[in-house]
Amino acid sequence: MIVSAADLLxxxxxxxxxATAVVVMLCTAVKRNHLLAVILSVVGLSAAFASLWAxxxxxxxxxxxxxxxxxxxxxxLGLILAASIAVVLxxxxxxxxxxxxxxELYILLLIATLGSAVLVASSHFVSLFLGLELLSVSLYAxxxxxxxxxxxxxxxxxxxxxxxxxxxxxxxxxxxxYAALGTMNFARIGTLLAGGAMDHTLVLPGMxxxxxxxxxxxxxxxxxxxxxxxxxxxxxxxxxYIATVSKGAVFALLLRFFYHTGAHLxxxxxxxxxxxxxxxxxxxxxxxxxxxxxxxxxxxxxIAHLGYLLVAFQAGGDLGPLAVTFYLVAYFxxxxxxxxxxxxxSDGSGDAEELEMYRGLFWRRPALAAVFTAMxxxxxxxxxxxxxxxxxxxxxxxxxxxxxxxxxxxxVTSAIGLYYYLRIVVALYSRPAGEPATPAEASPRLASxxxxxxxxxxxxxxxxxxxxTYPAPLLDVIRRALA
Amino acid sequence: MxxxxxxVIPLVAGILAWVAGHHRPLAARWIALIAVxxxxxxxxxxxxxxFHGGWHTWFEQLDWAWIPSFGIHFxxxxxxxxxxxxxxxxxxxxxxxxxxxxxxxxxxxFFHLNxxxxxxxxxxxxxxxxxxxxxxxWELMLVPMYFLIAIWGHENRTYAAxxxxxxxxxxxxxxxxxxxxxxxxxxxxxxxxxxxxxxxLNTPLAPGVAMWIMLGFFVAFAVKLPVxxxxxxxxxxxxxxxxxxxxxxAGLLLKTGAxxxxxxxxxxxxxxxxxxxxxxxxxxxxxxLYGAILAFGQTDLKRLVAYxxxxxxxxxxxxxxxxxxxxxxxxxxxxxxxxxSTGALFILVGALQQRTHTREMERMGGLWTVVPRMSGAAxxxxxxxxxxxxxxxxxxxxxxxxxxxxxxIxxxxxxxxxxxxxxxxxxxxxxxxxxxxxxxxxxxADLVPREGLVMAVMILALLWxxxxxxxxxxxxxxxxxxxxxPLPGR
Lengths: 483, 490
Hints:
Chain A is mostly helical. Helices cover about 75% and strands about 0% of the residues of chain A. Chain A contains 20 helices and 2 strands. In chain A, strands 1-2 form a two-stranded antiparallel ribbon. In chain B, about 75% of the residues lie in helices and about 5% in strands. Chain B has a two-stranded antiparallel ribbon. The longest helix of chain B is centred in the middle third of the chain and has 34 residues, at about 155-190.
């Protein structure tokens, strides 16, 4: 097969990512330096991000049968790269305060980002699986990155076992589909299915197994059991990464796979997705009520949010993909912001995860509390934040395709969900009883804020309000990407 | 542009107040006071400029594209009804700032940020004629109100704040679904995606569908109003909120519910609303009696006043759905006067609580000799609340009863019993708290000049509304007349 210069240009972001990982690895091998590793990673990720503008003119382009670089790919690449930059910056302040050598984390993160990039570009089962494994294998190590603490190791192991099992499901599903249809190309599968191949005995079980495999990654009910433990155990920046880049890339893939193949339009698949969506919305929102650990609350809330996303996915039509994409952007910004606050409040002795640690934060650090409030309100879908418009588009998508049952459930469960977001907000603003009027130095845990983390939080808050009040430019970009 | 400034001034001033209030609390108070006064003056100038009619049309508009791909516009417009409610908003806004002058000592800047943002949200609700913008503003006033209760409230504030938030948010989301349904049905009928009020007015709807969509709107407004059964958030929120919060809740937030009924439920779904009217009127009358009876049973002063709101807003609901000229005029009159009289009672109770640190009537009694000026003011507003002729509330409730009588005699009779019950609770309030022997040995200060001024202004306003309501009636009546016009196609 001949690869032309234009093909190489099209996959330039992926090449830059791979090269950056190698460079960071070599530098670390010569001399350990945390700051250097961070700078190299950020430069590499930014270069990959900047290269997207060079890629746009050659889109859409099929590079080998595996990867397709079109507007959709470019948009999601941008989202993933931007989120990775934010995570790297947050991680710098976080790991600076920890005892262990942090440099390898950035190598793993770059490889995981490369895996995500392959996922969003894949148009073939092989590239799907390659991307997914690149992502997963890096994540095992990232989750267990602080070996001195008990929880990360447990979480890493849990993730390893379940992710490996889910990968097996996925592979088996792909094998069944391949056995039935003789192709692994999404578009070709779509043509065959449209021609009536859905009736083949092996296709439906195959699709079900694929949904199972992807469902594990997305942590939708009933494949969600790992989520709270992993969210709690992983270091806060890594949790942010799992919640955004990993899930976002898999959802982007899900969207592409099913919209290309059209498999979700068949009655059994439609019912399966509806059940998953409803169960995720209920389970996520109700189980979160019982938690008193902020990271676990956010874990359950992410289950619910993936349920909302599935509602928009189900809606389809013109609005469905638009709603999904906008919601994912809002979800990225919000989740990064929320875990960003958790990250900057954490220190060498452990993560700031207990709700008690947030009590009265407003009276000690008003700005940080305001940022966290904005993020929580966005998760709850209150106006002026991006989360509100995201929810609005999902409801609009659902209403336009008359999915009344799904959107009424969405409304009811998100009202339940309000309670636990408000619980955190209440804690932030509750007056610390009997504390002095100026307790700024009272809590050394919250003393030092890394400047890089603060900058990220400020940018995320601005983005949150901007997308929440004037979304027209972002919508234009998304529309063009989806066209 | 003036409408734009009405919303932007409080928003910007709120941020300024937060920044300034960090080191100098007094600066935050003055910034808030000046900003709200400026808005009040702007609204007054609008009133003066158009004093001789044209109230039934949108006499001032502003229309910017906001999210064009969804047909969403930043579209503000004002008619007579909006104008009066805006006047009330900024009038009570000024008084709220003054009432909090010494009560709020913690995080003063952030308090005024929230106060001003609520006012901006309420102004947005009264001005929006794009349904998406309306919903946006509707939700916008919720968050700062939540903070007002949750941070500066009394003992049980967390519970009250969360309850308030969840009630209003859930009902608001149902309204959003109804708005979206209307939006897509309008598109199906005409091929145009729009949230414009004027365009959605004539959307052809199948009767069954229209009823469901109407109910979506009705529930959201009914929670705010509040209609009996959906009212349980109200006593808690009113009781636990700081004074300014209670004034704004009772005086303004409840009115947004009534405004929604008048502006959206009746004109958008005339047929369904007509069919639903008997149930709504019955709910209104039930609210009148229920609120009055529960008010009579309270020992907590603030809770008592809170339940009177349920009763008075029952008149508003019954008046709106009685749907004739007298009843509609009465409903709007009651909305305005209830805002002032109940607001004043909350300010008085707040001032009393700040001095005595209790709201229990059992621990008061005989205060007349200690604080004569405060007691006199309380008597005045209690009388206004029970509907003494010559004061604004009387005009409103009397008109509602007249209008209701034309539609349903039985309900009118029952509602009249509510007026009687009001006499009991209002006089009981005055007797328990202020009359009788002074046995508790209170040594507290009477109204200071700042508070005296607030009371005097409110007394004058109520007297004016009671004795010469014509300018006010003239302003909103053309709008109401538009509501009563025979429906097209009948």
